[in-house]
Write a structure and sequence with these properties.
This protein has helices at 6-16, 26-33, 40-59, 62-83, 88-113. The protein is mainly alpha-helical. The model has no long low-confidence stretch (mean pLDDT 85).
Length: 114
């Protein structure tokens, strides 16, 4: 089965019916006469910002704070999971939800193929 998609057919049509306007090199001359865009000020500002951010994070002892936050969050999650009663209904609903999501993904893939 060699089906062409609408996009491929449109691309082929426009490729076959392409019309180039005769401008005698006008477009090329205009493009060459435009000033070049300078990028270096943006790079300098970005570099300065990154350096200031690193200095601030070092001064604020941010890594230690992030590690402490991660440990506390992990401890809280473990405590919540330890105190949660998991029943057969919860497992069944989780399984049903997973199956439904898989069905939706497969359905969308099949629809996109055709």
């Amino acid at each position: 089965m060699n089906k062409k998609t609408d996009d491929e057919l449109l691309a082929q049509f426009f490729q076959e019916h392409r019309i180039e306007p005769a401008d005698a090199g006008f477009t090329d001359r205009v493009m060459k006469s435009l000033p070049r865009r300078t990028v270096w000020p943006e790079q300098v500002w970005t570099g300065c910002f990154i350096i200031m951010l690193i200095v601030y994070l070092y001064q604020a002892n941010a890594m230690q704070r992030l590690i402490t936050f991660a440990r506390q969050s992990l401890t809280d999650i473990v405590v919540i999971l330890a105190n949660t009663e998991i029943s057969l209904t919860s497992v069944g609903m989780l399984l049903a939800g997973t199956l439904v999501m898989q069905w939706v993904v497969v359905h969308e893939l099949v629809q996109s193929e055709s």
